[in-house]
Fold this protein.
Amino acid sequence: MKVISGVLTTLMLGVSASAVTAKMVEPTTPPPAPSFSAQSEPVFVKRADIFDYRALDSYTEPEFVSAFVEAGKLPPVKDRLPAEPMVYKTANMPDGTGVYGGTLRHVIGGRPEGWNFWGGQSQGWGGIDIGMTECLTRTGPLFMVESTDLQPLPNLAPGWEWSEDGKTLTVHLIEGAKWSDGDPFDTQDIDFYWNDIIMDPEVTPLMGASQATYNGATLDIVDDHSFTMTFDTPFPESVLYNMAYGNFCPGPSHVLKPHHPRHGGESYDAFINAFPPEKLGFPVMGAWVPVEYRSDDIIVLRRNPYYWKVDEDGNQLPYLNEVHYRLSTWADRDVQAVAGTGDFSNLEQAENYVEALRRSAADDAPARLAFGPRTIGYTLYPNLSGNGWGEPDARAQAVRELNRNLDFRKGISQAIDRRRLGESLVKGPFTVQYPGGLYAGTSYYDNDSTVFYPYSLESARAHFEAAGLKDTDGNGFYNWPDGSPAGNGDVQITILHTFDYQTDKNLAEGVVAMLEEAGIRAALNSLNNNDRDANRDAGTYDWMVFRNDKELITVVQQTDELAPIGPTTARNHRANPAGELDLLDWEQDMVDVVQAFMASRDSDERAELMKRYQKLYTENLYGVGLTAYPGALIINKRFANIPSGVPIFMYNWAEDNIIRERVYVPEDAQRDHELHPKTLPSADGPVTAG
Ligand code: GLA
């Protein structure tokens, strides 16, 4: 592990921590947030207004694709589509039926590890995986669904039904849909996903799904297009949300299975690494297939000729023939989207807000920029395992003991000046002091159930001393208590974070400086995003600065991740190598509350349970909230069918929320951006009909 020394250590010399007479400052409710209203609101609809599944009289495709059919290289479009494809309704399309052509040029800061999402590989984020992978249900577009109709959208599973006792869920797959190489999509793919990925302890898919994600279900295949899931408790409806992006997104078993060690594959490592980014044409159910990869340069994806969604006129989707992923930095994504050399950005690094706003305000600005709700938030998480997760050495184990002490966590929280931290990113009405847990302004948030430990160095020190720490050598930093296996030097903690984002870096550096002001030596462990994730999942960290995921916004999504309900569900407390989870009492209470929430269908009860959750979380500092602020979607003005009020992050990221497969570029706005015009994907890269 690479450890970079804390930046401001030298400035802190001379402050003797133990010289301060200790006074504890009591917690309050969170300070009020500066008002900041979203710039456009969604047009709310019912789920059934967006699409249905039905046969149309005839279907069409881009002309260049018909050339493949005429050359005998592709079956006719009606034979490539399911008998009843998904049909997007024109009335719900902001600009109506689209036209073919056009390229969406993404820019990202991530790098692909490979295409094996199911073996845990990242494709580089920024929505590449969202465009390639389809899941049984879908949640991104739910931001526009009326609250009375809130349920996951059907996707690869057009329907499902519960048994009378609510303990069996029967799920029906779309019939006749095909992978982008023409292989049928059916329960063979489900069987492989469940038995060889989810149930195989040697394999963890990218987003960490396990049997606990589906309430401990057992799965049985019924026939080619249906399966059942059986549960111990009735109606665990959260599984339907967990069938959406990230979780129940089956991979192409016809290409993955032969590499799996249970089916003749050489080893787990070989399985995971069988599909490096150079391997083109990886079969997908999504709208675009990778056809070109150049390291540190670009990934190009072309339309999937077997895509199973159409518009009401029978045009096979997507409208866009090509999607680019320029491999650059996340900050460059903002710069390029504003300048018009890139097409899309989730403006989420607050450092870039002022410049991006200024440049987008010009009449001739190439891109639209619209702010949404405050759903970008950062938390400082303690590693709460005391029994060996991550196999800590003596120093790290001594930190874990401190982390499990409430006074120590209170000390950390009160050492953080959240106002200063927010303003160091951006001045103005953007950032709020974030106590942790559910975000203010989201549906399950309750202010009275939120405990806020205000900034006070004096109180922080009082709590550190209550946790047994003293500055025995008078150098301004607390020492390990007598007899600590970590020795008798200064307490030293490391802060894991990713340097892929300037914001993560700035916040981690700010935290280090503030902790040192309070007498705790801290050092950064700065890694790229993929390595940060690997350390997080292995438990090899003391504390971690982390941009939060969607469960703290919507609650109904990834609910299992709200507490350590299973051996591997939480990001800051997992089981040791022997499979034991040493939960603190209040963590066990959190688990009980989350499980009761998942089991309840009564909305009042669910609201009450989330109040209890928020209280347990914020009072006990399961995570130390840092700052939260709104994000903005930047999208080039040539794109049509972008829904109003799209949040960059809610049930999913904007790459899913905008429904890219029905986004189009009007003919007169189309530019010559296609790098592989008139081609379709193949294992050898892009190929033409001729
Ligand atoms: C990264 C980016 C987000 C979003 C997601 C999509 O995390 O920071 O803005 O693009 O990828 O997965």
Summary: The chain has 19 helices and 22 strands. The longest strand covers residues 288-294. The domain at 47-371+633-669 is CATH 3.40.190.10 (D-Maltodextrin-Binding Protein; domain 2).
